[in-house]
Structure formats: C-alpha cells, structure tokens
Amino acid sequence: MILSMALLFLMCLSVNAGGQKGLLSSQSDETENNSETGLLSSQSDEAENNSEAEMLLRESNETVKSSHIVPWPKESNETVNSSHAVSWPKESNETVNSSHAISNSSHVHLQILAEGCRDKKFTSKSCQKIFCQPWEKCVQGNCVCKLPYQCPKNGEDVCSSNNKKYRTYCQLKSVECYRNQEKFSHFGACSLGHAAVSFRSDQKSQGIVLFSFNQTLRDMPICMNQKRWTMHEANVVCRQLNFQLGAEKILTETEFISWPEDTNFMKWSNRMRCRGFETSLSECFRLTDIEEPQKACEKENITAVKCYDYTADKKCTNEEFTCVNGKCIPLKDLCNGIDDCADLSDESCCKKCNNSHHCKSDVCIPSLSLCDGEDDCLDGSDEKDCAGTNKPKDYNKERILLKSSLTKISCGISNVTRDTHTSKRTKRLVGGEEALQGQFPWQIAVYDNTRLNCGGVFIGGCWILTAAHCLRLYHMSDYVVRIAKHNKRDIADNEEILPVEKIIIHHDYNAKTYQNDIALIKVKHVFLDKECIPLSHDVQPVCVPWSEYLFRPKKTCIISGWGQAREDRVSILRWAELNIFGNCSDIYQSDFYEGMECAGKMDGTVDACKGDSGGPLVCTDERNEVYVWGLVSWGEECGKYGRPGVYTKVSHYFEWISSHVGRALISKYNV
C-alpha cells in the first residue's frame, strides 16, 4: 500500500513537471512568434520606406535582402519613421519624471547634428569643413601654421602686444600661430599707443568690458549694438584676457552693477565685428572706426561678459553640449551660426541651422556673413545671388586684401556655356548626348598604341588623372595622351598627341578589388612654351577637390566619355547627368571600400559603360567652378537596375595627388 502511494506521488510529480515543461515550451514558441512578428513588422516598415529602391531591385535578376537596400536620401522635411521620431514632451496632468523630460529635450536638440559627424571632432582647424585663415594652410585635413615669409607682402604695418612692429597682419598672425605669446594690438605704428581690455569688477573672470588705447581711450565701457555684439565678441574678449576657452555667456543687466550716468561710452558701431577666431578685440575694427564717445547707454546695451573659468575635469550636464575643446555650452546654442564653443565644433556638424545660413558642408555661419564679399562656405553659396544687395564692405579691409593677395590657380572653367537642364535627363551616357567642341576642355583620351583605351582628366601642368586599372606600369612606351580630342575617328587641327614620361599608380592599388583605383600620367614637355600643356579654348585644367564635403549626395553632376552606347559605336565625345549617391556599402557590401563613391540612377537610366573608365565625373560649385569629383572605376554591367556605377572619390586622394604633382599646382584654396 505504501509502495502504491509512493508510486502515485511520483506520477503526480511527473505530470506537474511535464505541465511546466509544456508551459515553458509554449512561452518560448510565443516569444519566437513575437520575435518573428516584430522582425516582419520592422522589415515591413523598412520596405515601406525603401519602396522605390526595393521595386527597382526586385526587377533585377539578383535577389537582394531588404536590409541591404539603400533608398534615395529623402528630404529632411519628410516624415520620419515613427519608431525613431522624437517630439517635445506633451503637457499632461500626470507627474512626469524630470530626468526623462530632460533626456527627451536633449535628444531633440542633438537631432540637429549630422549622424556620425560628431565623432570626427571637426573644429575651426578642420579644412574638410571650412577655409583656413590666410596665415594657415591645409595639410592632411587640418589647418596648420604658415611661416611668416609665406604670407603676402602687401599690407599695412601692425603692432603687437609686445610693442613689436610687423610688416603685415598676416605675418603677425603667423607668428602668433606658432607661439601664443605675440598678440595683435592695433593697425599702424607702435608709437600710436597700446590697445587693451579689462573688466570693471573685483572678479577677474567677469564684469563690464573696458577698452583702452593710450590716453585717448582709458577704461571706457562699450555700448553695444545688440545685433553686432555676440558670443564671437565675448569669446575674443576672454581670449585676450587669457581664458583660452572664451566666454561662458554675455551677462544681462540684472547680473552687474549699474554704471554712473555721466560716463562716456565707446560705441560698438556697425563697422565693428568679430568673426570669433581673433585673439584681440582690436582685431575686429580699426582705430579710425571708433566714433566720438557717447554720453549715455541703456543699461541692457552695456557689454558685460563672464569668461569660461572651469577646471579641465568639468563634466557637461544632459542639457549641455561637450565641445571638442572640452567646453560645455547649452544645447539650445547648437547650430545657430555663432561659435559658442570658441572652436566652431558646435557649428560644424549641423543638418540645419537656426536663424543662420546652412552651408552644404553642414556648417552654420552667421547671417551677417552673407554677401559680405568673402567666401565662408566651401562651395561659395553664401556669396551667391548677391547682386543689388548693397551690403556694406567688410570692416576689415586688411583681411579682404590678404585673401585677394593669396595665390589662386585658374581651373574648372569651360569656355562653352550650355544649359544642361534643357536636355533629356533620362538619357544615359550609353547613347547619351553629344558634347560641343570645348565643352569639357579637361577631357583627355588615353591611347594604348592606336586604340582609345580609357578616359582621363587634365589637372594642370604636365599631369593627367585616370584610373589605375587603365594602365600597365611596364608598358609606358605603348601609351600616348591626346588633348582637345572630340571625334575619336578624326584628328582635328587643334588636337595634340603627347608621349608619356611617367606613370604613377597608387601604391595600394588592388587589381582584384579595385581599391585605390587611381593613377597619374605625366606627359613629356615637348613644346617651346613655358606650359607643359598649352591652355586654349579647348584645353583647360579641372579643379581638384580637397574636401569630401564640397559636394554632397543628391548633387547633380556630369560624366563624359567615348564609352560604348549599348551596341552602337561612339565617335563623338558624349556626356550625361547623374546624381551622387555617396556610400553604397549596403548595396555592394564587401566590394565597396573607402575611397569609392556611387553615382547614377537607381533605375539604371544613367550610367557609365565600357570605354568610359578613367574618365571624369565632374561637379560644379556655386561659383561655376568645375571639380573632378570621381573617376569611372567599375560597376555591374551598364545601367543595371539597383546597381549604380562606382567611382574613385578624388577628394579622398588629394594628399596623394599633391605629394606627386605639388600642392601649389592643384590647391585652389588653403595654399
């Protein structure tokens, strides 16, 4: 009996255990089902967002997973996938956790920054994003100091804070760039006096700003024009007082003591303006710009500044942005065109700008910089359509003189004007539109013996840029270069055939993967002219881009060449328009490497083809200057759906090119 009861008890335990196992299995199955449902839902959302690209890819013979589809970049004002959207916290009667609200608010402010850009730590010294100052040059993507003798010689004498005379403003700034001891005092002879700033306060790091020059202006407070006194000026004041991270904020009238009513004030006029890079307030104006002192100033217009005076280990809060230099600024000050960080890192990665101008390189500049006679955006968009604006000239004539005196090369100018937008944009280069004589004066034909082997592009001097896969290093005598070539079946009177002196293939070129598919050809100097390749109506060099941010995805550019047009043979040089895609790693996966870029149409209506290799993909900036943005490298067939052409990204190889041909030959700016 006892044995029977024991057996019964064990059977009950077994049943219970089986029931529990079944329950776990059921939960596991349910979890798997939910997981699959979530995945399908996610794929469905992605497929909906990528519908155009997916439809095109489905029409191809290859099967492509939806996770690998790259949709055409959408405009920023289009609806964002709800799972990623962040909105301001809604009003509610319920109690909301304050830390959560702060987190949402912070996320909203940070959404204005371009994805991945912040990790690159761009600053005012990053010539990938901005122009270097006249006393700097661009090397390896960074602005570095020039030697004083490299500055232009024309200009006005300046005096330093150490009472030393310099021949030009550029020379003084070059010396200061190397050693931060010699600072600017004023334009003109040192005998005129000495400029300085100080605070009217017992505290060394904040107070009402006082300006002094000799005995004529002694500890005079500044009455500001509210539109002209910004954090740029505040940063300069603090930097002059040896606070290297600039200002923390501009003090309001409630944060400082009133000034006696009978005080004379220095007026900060419309002719005075700091750009933010200066280290002395007197760099922002000339002494002749100082007007007669004014007897009164509204309290809210008296300039007062608090300098950034924190230790290096200060941590930024959730409501602050950490600048590259370690400074903390309010998130609300991101992307407003004002260099609050004092290193420009808060304005260098902006998808859009608040009350300021957005450069295509994702840099925000002040509205005051528009149409001021000086290029601030890499592509010159801030100086576009400025006719009739009647904007006053820059306060700093010396700076304008400096920039105009810098050596500039002439490149990217076609003598044939033609409205490309009137053509049928659906036409491919494969059977595309015939070019006019001289329309692409940088186009080069590279011949292997008597056969047109590849295209190329003239970049100046004796140098041609082409694709590495077009050349064989040990068969140099087989190649000739033809300039001013238009009809490949005829030799025109203005056409020249030049022998090759040297071939330079990129040292890391991989013939299997097409990595670093770029090469240089140097032609022999056979003419009596000073120029290796004489310039003419039909022969002009193209500009070489130094920054990958000069042109962005969706930019419409042009390819040209003598490539095969389906089954038709091509004699006349042809061209077609296409769009930059940018990164295509999601399409080509492991076949896509750094230094490559995609361009074309997802539906295959525009593409390069056999015979176009090495030829140029050129883009035009807002100044109508043309840059070689890519070299035809490889692709999957000609005009295949969902498979845009792959180009060698020339800006990625600027340093390599300049190391062989000389920086002065190809540096349009930042020399």
TrEMBL record:
Compositionally biased tracts (Polar residues): 23-44
Keywords tagged on the record: Disulfide bond, Glycoprotein, Hydrolase, Immunity, Protease, Repeat, Secreted, Serine protease, Signal
Protein's organism: Chiloscyllium plagiosum
Disulfide bonds: C274-C284, C316-C328, C323-C341, C335-C350, C359-C377, C371-C386
Cellular component GO terms, alphabetical: extracellular region; membrane
Protein name: Complement factor I
Domain of life, per lineage: Eukaryota
GO-annotated molecular function: serine-type endopeptidase activity
Signal peptide limits: 1-17
Matching SUPFAM superfamilies: Kazal-type serine protease inhibitors (SSF100895), LDL receptor-like module (SSF57424), SRCR-like (SSF56487), Trypsin-like serine proteases (SSF50494)
Domain Peptidase S1: 429-662
UniProt key word Disulfide bond: yes
Pfam families xref list: CFAI_FIMAC_N, Kazal_CFAI, Ldl_recept_a, SRCR, Trypsin
UniProt-listed PANTHER family: ACROSIN-RELATED, HYALIN
One record GO biological process: immune system process
Main subcellular location: secreted
Annotated stretches, region: Disordered: 22-83
Keyword Signal: yes
